[in-house]
Design a protein that fits this description.
The chain is an alpha/beta fold. The chain contains 16 helices and 34 strands. Helix content is 29%, strand content 25%. Helix 1 packs parallel to helix 2 and helix 4 runs parallel beside helix 6. The two termini are 41 Å apart. It holds the Pfam family GHL6.
Length: 665
């Protein structure tokens, strides 16, 4: 419950607890301090909420939640201070390269290396822990600020004097960079500086909190020195919408940081500018069900408490999905991947063209029902053995990898892991491009609008009956692929644009859009083109089949591991599970596999309608051993199945919104 200041005057502990119980919620996250104190603080640098009339309201909420067995995590946001504090301490606050402040009404963005964050924040947290019997703390907007996200304006790298001094100490005398340029060695040093300073602050925070009470959980958006990694499924302000946002977020976090608890929040607001309008109920349902399927707990974030809310359409969804989770909790959350394929993510919060490329590749795999994991690019070296265990790794426009990550990928290739890379992947490491793919760059950036690709080798490209030319747009890199063992997809010239009478002239350019290099135990394929982006933005299946045909050519067994007649808009998530009970907390052996089915047939690309029921779904799945029983979680009714040669065949008569099929040993 992200409380606006004015709700401090009206919130009621009894009604909050009643609503939480009705929704089967077992944890409340609610404001405590930072931007403003929602309790009677004694610290003069902690701005008190002017609407706060009842000094005991936070204490009452915590006490009454505990009486019902509900944990309470309190929210802090140290990204801003009130104007009163800014006027007394302007040196505590952000200043842009142009000398600008980031201001929201009467709140000023602070500098992470200034005394407010480095000293005063710890005193605020300590005061709250000493005053209230809390179960956890949540840190909103931690770290360095360069944007005013509430107004959509970029301001730049903080030039506060405290930042300048600390960066000079860190770098041996360098001045702060003023531009975010990944190709600039100084900016790369600044990125390392940000990482080190944020982790230093987080470590100090953990020592403080755990010295007070080991059982207080620390929750935020990063991984170091925290107990719970939080992520957010947010509404998109640009099309196409992304219905897999929760699967994307959770899949990235659980595979990149397997030792952490993951909590992905469904953010109810449409946008920062439209906080009082919630997303569609069907979008909320999809997010929550994807949370369950991928191993997150349920997490819903809204403005204010649930009474008198401006948009209550999703309340029945909360009650239904949370209730389903509560009734079947033993089958959720303690998962192990069965995927042989991994997609490398460009960070935890991808954006821009790399995000479009990454999402497009995901979309192709999800629609083809190919199980895959997501691994964040920065975690490759930390997960070396896991990465080397995949049969196929896909790199959608992944660049700027550290040397140790490149080493892991090269060794994985040598040991039998196939690689597929797209667009500008490894453009900054010519040696890696040549070693892995036999490729050299002639022209990295080239507008491909008007060019065509020819699916020439039908032993590879089996999906193009009746089609000899595939249109293109976006980037079409011109690469020398002479070091590859096979060059496929000849690129045709743009030809003559104009009226029908003059078109033509699409002659071969001598370039190819795919090169495959054979290694002793694996293959490495390079598409120097925006393959994911063109599918994400336009959705022509011909581009999807380029990738799928190459996957099945490189790794034929993928097609036999999981077979289904489910439509592309039925999301399938297959996991190995261990019953999630107190008795099994330390248990690592498997209790079976679980197949989650999420019905996205109501998603149109820009609207979330109710899904259409899907009938007579068939599944053939390779399993390690024969299940003793197979049943659905919505009604716990057994399903008939057959077992032959290590493969289970099972059918589902009807899929409504969501289903989980348990295959228990």
């Amino acid at each position: 419950m992200n409380l606006p200041a004015y709700e401090a005057a009206t919130i009621n502990a009894d009604s909050i607890v009643t609503d939480l119980v009705a929704c089967s919620a077992n944890t409340l996250l609610i404001n405590a301090g930072g931007i403003m104190a929602f309790y009677p603080t004694k610290l003069d640098f902690h701005y008190r909420n002017p609407y706060l009339k009842d000094n005991n309201v936070l204490a009452d909420v915590i006490r009454k939640c505990h009486e019902k067995g509900i944990k309470v995590i309190v929210r802090f946001d140290f990204s801003r201070v009130n104007e009163r504090i800014f006027k007394a301490h302007p040196d505590w606050c952000y200043i842009s390269p142009k000398g600008e402040r980031i201001i929201n009404t009467d709140m000023y963005v602070v500098s992470i290396n200034a005394p407010y964050v480095q000293e005063k924040a710890f005193r605020i947290i300590e005061e709250v822990i000493d005053t209230f019997p809390i179960d956890g703390i949540f840190l909103n907007m931690p770290g360095y600020q360069v944007n005013n996200p509430y107004e959509g304006k970029y301001h730049g790298i903080d030039q506060n004097d405290y930042d300048k001094k600390r960066f000079a100490e860190f770098s041996g005398g360098d001045a702060l960079p003023t531009e975010e340029n990944k190709a600039d060695p100084l900016f790369q040093k600044y990125l390392e500086f940000k990482k080190v300073t944020v982790e230093d602050w987080s470590e100090r925070l953990r020592k403080l909190v755990k010295s007070k009470n080991e059982q207080i959980a620390i929750c935020t958006y990063s991984d170091k020195f925290v107990d719970i990694i939080r992520h957010e499924s947010q509404s998109m302000t640009t099309l196409p919408y992304w219905p897999y946002t929760a699967s994307d977020n959770v899949g990235n976090a659980v595979n990149s940081f397997p030792e952490h608890i993951i909590s992905n929040a469904s953010i109810q607001q449409i946008s920062f500018q439209s906080r009082y309008n919630a997303v569609e109920p069907e979008e909320t349902r999809i997010r929550l069900c994807e949370n369950i399927a991928n191993g997150s707990g349920l997490d819903m974030s809204m403005m204010g408490d649930m009474r008198g809310y401006e948009d209550e359409r999703s309340y029945p969804v909360f009650r239904k999905v949370y209730g389903f989770h509560k009734n079947n909790e033993a089958y959720f959350g303690k998962y192990k991947s069965v995927a042989k394929v991994a997609v490398i993510a460009p960070g935890a919060w991808p954006n821009g063209e790399p995000m479009q490329e990454y999402r497009g590749i995901q979309l192709m795999l999800r629609e083809a029902h190919i199980p895959f994991d997501i691994v964040e690019d920065g975690q490759i070296a930390h997960l070396e053995q896991k990465v080397k265990g995949y049969k196929l790794i896909i790199l959608p426009e992944i660049s700027y990898l550290k040397p140790e990550a490149l080493r892991v990928l090269k060794e994985a290739s040598q040991q039998g892991t196939n690689l597929i890379a797209t667009n500008r992947t490894f453009f900054d490491s010519p040696e890696t491009l040549e070693t892995l793919f036999g490729a050299k760059i002639d022209k990295k950036d080239n507008d491909g609008a008007g060019n065509y690709l020819v699916p020439d080798d039908r032993s590879v490209f089996r999906s193009f009956k009746g089609q000899n030319m595939l249109f293109w747009k976006f980037n079409l890199g011109l690469y020398d692929l002479s070091g590859a063992h096979r060059r496929l997809l000849p690129v045709l010239a743009k030809g003559r644009p104009g009226p029908p009478e003059i078109i033509g002239g699409h002659d071969a350019t001598g370039y190819y859009a795919l090169g495959i290099k054979n290694h002793p135990k694996s293959k490495a394929a390079l598409f120097p083109i925006n393959l994911g982006r063109i599918y994400y933005m336009h959705g022509y299946e011909e581009h999807k089949y380029l990738l799928l045909d190459v996957i099945y050519h490189m790794l034929p067994e993928i097609a036999q591991d999981f077979e289904t007649n489910a439509p592309a808009r039925v999301e399938t998530v297959l996991k190995e599970f261990t019953r999630n009970t107190h008795e099994n907390r330390a248990k690592n052996t498997s209790d079976g596999q679980i197949l989650h089915l999420i019905n996205l047939t109501g998603f149109s690309g820009n609207t979330y309608f109710e899904p259409l029921p899907v009938h007579d779904l068939q599944f053939k799945i390779r399993l390690a051993k024969k299940p003793q029983k197979v049943f659905t979680l919505t009604n716990h009714k057994p399903l008939n199945f057959t077992w032959k040669d290590g493969t289970i065949s099972v059918s589902l008569t009807r899929l409504a919104e969501f289903e989980s099929i348990v295959m228990e040993w």
